[in-house]
Specification:
The protein is an alpha+beta fold. It has helices at residues 14-17, 33-42, 48-51, 58-72, 127-140, 157-167, 190-199, 211-226, 269-272, 285-297, 320-325, 331-334, 337-349, 354-359, 369-377, 392-400, and strands at 4-5, 10-12, 75-77, 83-92, 98-110, 119-120, 142-143, 147-151, 173-176, 180-187, 205-209, 236-243, 250-252, 255-258, 277-282, 302-306, 311-316, 363-366, 383-386, 411-413, 423-424.
Length: 430
């Protein structure tokens, strides 16, 4: 099953680089151009120069920057191998502003093909993003951000170990970015590390966020083997591991916007959906979202729909329709809201095939319901669908069945910060 290992993390020497809160950034794929400039203006040593390089030859630039920072001591490898406890404290805006904490550990995990059933994906990936991450790994030989994975631990043994270790000393880093307080502890004790490694000997891991990076790490490892380059470190990838029942796990929905569909009249869609859905007009987006929450708590498959003039809720009448539509899929997959939307409405009723969806030809995504509404009002999109969040146990059930959800099915919050620890694979690249 899952093999985890400690490692000598590459970390900032804050005496040379500056305060740690000025050196980290969110995941590369959610950073706007304006935010990019702001991070560099705050501190030119921000990890964004490595994780999201710019310019005519961005990957070569990232490699050059990494070499320079290593030579100048901006980045240094820890003297001893360790496992790193990482915690995020935040306000859950969905759950009445309750303060929550997400705690897990960052370590190396042995790469396994998905077919081995040890590391399980839940979501499809996009080829463009994987090529970008591969070229960055080729140029730097480093993981700058950790993959986010979940594990089952009914007795919460590992979580108790992490809590005890964190309580025994002060965090190495503790800072707030205005929304989230980040804490990091360094664990070097061999006995504690051995116990944590033993915990995972019979466990599977479920990728929550970072599918592109995991598939890229597999490709990188395989490429080095094909080139006959010795790099045992490349058999591992950096991961953050979190108990699947952690109280701090929050999943946001990702909403869908449709555009450029020929001969499509959004106002007719509720009527077209009438065979399978109970449709009801709603006065506002806020009222629609309240209805979505109510149906979600009741376990009903429901979508909000806006045609530019009128809001609706679409509530599936009978889930058995999915059994006939996708008989080859598991019940877990057929019961997902995102599956129902994509397969029954987008594909069957509107004729948007899966290849089209993957290429985002007529389909875009946003986490903001307000942004979705404004896009339709501005004429940028023809209509939008609001979704409820996918439940964490639904995600693991689909992964355990060996299946993958459509792209952008989940949005785990908060995102893991990039730059606290990095995983350097081998010296020859640098």
């Amino acid at each position: 099953m899952a093999e985890i290992r400690p490692f000598r993390a590459l970390r900032y020497d804050t005496a040379r680089a500056g305060e740690i809160k000025e050196l980290v950034c969110p995941p590369y794929d959610i950073i706007s151009e304006e935010e990019y400039r702001a991070y560099l203006a705050q501190n030119p040593h921000n990890v964004i120069r490595l994780e999201l390089p710019k310019g005519e030859e961005p990957y070569r630039e990232a490699g050059a920057v990494l070499r320079e920072w290593l030579e100048r001591g901006i980045l240094k490898e820890d003297m001893d191998e360790g496992i790193y406890i990482y915690e995020e404290e935040f306000l859950d805006q969905v759950d009445h502003g309750e303060t929550k904490k997400l705690r897990g550990m960052i370590c190396r995990v042995r790469l396994e093909e998905f077919s081995a059933g040890v590391v399980l994906p839940h979501e499809e990936t996009l080829s463009k993003a994987k090529e970008d991450r591969f070229q960055l790994m080729r140029a730097t030989g480093c993981n700058f951000s950790q993959i986010y994975s979940l594990y089952r631990d009914d007795q919460h043994i590992t979580r108790q170990r992490l809590d005890n270790l964190a309580a025994s000393c002060s965090p190495r880093y503790e800072f707030s970015d205005g929304l989230i307080t980040h804490r990091l502890w360094v664990v070097n004790d061999p006995v504690s590390i051995a116990a944590l490694r033993e915990d995972f000997a019979d466990r599977k891991l479920y990728i929550a966020d970072g599918h592109h990076r995991y598939e890229t790490a597999l490709r990188y490892r395989n490429t080095l083997r094909e080139e006959d380059r010795y790099c045992p470190d490349a058999d591992y990838v950096m991961m953050m591991l979190v108990d699947i029942e952690d109280d701090g796990l929050v999943v946001f929905p990702t909403h869908r916007l449709l555009n450029s569909l020929p001969d499509f009249d959004p106002a007719k869609l509720p009527e077209i959906c009438g065979e399978w859905f109970e449709t009801a007009p709603r006065k506002t987006r806020e009222e629609t979202q309240e209805a979505l929450n109510t149906f979600y708590e009741a376990g009903r498959h429901t979508f909000g729909f806006f045609d530019g003039a009128q809001w609706y809720t679409l509530v599936l009448q009978d889930g058995k329709v999915m059994d006939g539509l996708l008989p080859e899929k598991s019940q877990a997959y057929r019961s997902l809201d995102v599956t129902i939307l994509h397969s029954l409405i987008l594909e069957r009723l509107l004729g948007i095939d899966r290849e089209n969806m993957a290429a985002q030809k007529n389909l875009r995504y946003t986490r903001s319901a307000e942004e979705a509404e404004q896009s339709v009002k501005a004429g940028e999109s023809q209509c939008c669908f609001l979704l409820n969040p996918t439940r964490v146990l639904e995600i693991s059930a689909v992964a355990a069945a060996g299946e993958k959800m459509p792209q952008k099915s989940t949005y785990f919050y908060p995102k893991l910060i990039t730059g606290l620890v990095m995983n350097r694979l081998f010296d020859e690249t640098i």
